[in-house]
Amino acid sequence: MITNTHKQLAQWAMDYALKNGCQAARINLYNGSNSSFEIRDMKIDRLIQASENGLSINLFVDGRFGSFSTNRLDKKELEKFIKNGIDSTRYLAEDLARTLPDASLYYKGGGSDLQLYDSKFDSLNPDEKVALAMSVCDEIAGKDSRLISAESSFSDQNSFGYMVASNGFEGESSYSNFSLSGSASIKGESDARPESYWSESSLFYDTLIKKGIGTKALERTVAKLGQQKIASAKLPMVLDFMNSSRLLSPLISALNGGAIQQRNSFLLDKLDRKVLGGNVTFMDEPHLPKASGARYFDREGVATKKMPVFENGVLKTYFIDTYNANKLGTARTIDSPSILTMPLGNKDLDGLVASIDKGILVTGFNGGNSNSSTGDFSFGIEGFLIEKGKKVKPVNEMNITGNLLTVWNNLIEAGNDPRLSSSRRIPSLVFDKVDFSGM
Questions:
Q1: What is the pLDDT of residues 157-194, one digit of tens each?
Q2: CA atoms within 13 A of residue 306's CA, in its CB half-sphere
Q3: Cα(first)–Cα(last) distance of the chain, in Å?
Q4: What values do phi and psi take at 219, rounded to 5?
Q5: What SS3 state is found at 380?
């Protein structure tokens, strides 16, 4: 937890830097803890508990920039640390694009509590955590004669931060998270060893789903029995909510200020142009309470706001931090998205599958890559062949290939089932005319 003592130390460190040759500075003081309890076949396999306290400082010295961090928070130690940092920064090449943000862009406070921290975090004891992980494993162990291994885990983490900048920013944050997961592997035909998992997470312990996780993991594993390739074809693709953000991630990466500045983006010079299908809208909604990814300011203290990223297929923003904005000679926006949402349809995954005469439901990706300059991609997939609205055969060792802009122009329908525990609240999706490579 960040105390007044921590804040005073951060303020002192900033003032000390300014008095010793630094023209501007930003201090980030942080602390937190995490633990994990891993179970294999109903026996404790691994325990991890860790905590951290640290201070990072960004120094702007004579047109040069240095970033340093330490976990030694004694003032005498920090004096030497800061002086050495300033001296070291003077040896670096001049880079006038390295500045603090314009102070007018900073979050000024006043927002309501986003409720991202569970006050019960410290009241949980290790026995409770182990018992939860054991209960997930117990839902798998002994439930199928073909079972090779049953694994589960419980993990939690909390973090606190306080940031202050010499041109007027001050802000703090707190966050907690709890997660449970289970995985199973079974003996299949010949040398096949199908395996799968399921997981749940929540910012708050009381709302964490604690039952059915192991059962779901085993069901998903058994469903993979008999996986095989099918003939190559151009087919509709149903992408489940566990994997729907995989096709979104390269789009967001292409909007990063560094990619734009380096001219290594297939969305370069596309601002305010229609690049995706007219039914594709993504919003960044950073102020949703009790939501993973919610925040009032980004990593430099710049205020976040609700804004469209793509609106009816039209690109509306890039994610540009201060450095890249200065390099590009353009306005700074936000350094990265907070919580991505899209308009929901009226069908769940089963309803989307039922609407397909013949296609493939993709339930997992197995490697692959995308070209950041062109948007061309090739991803390994697994899932199920769909015929007349039903899953009829598990498939794997197949690829989907194409171009991301083409795929997103072929979005047919969105489901109503995003994972609300994720900062990318993207539901199951249906795309038309996807190239599947198999036999």
A1: 999 999 999 999 999 999 999 999 999 999 988 888 99
A2: 5
A3: 57
A4: -60, -45
A5: strand
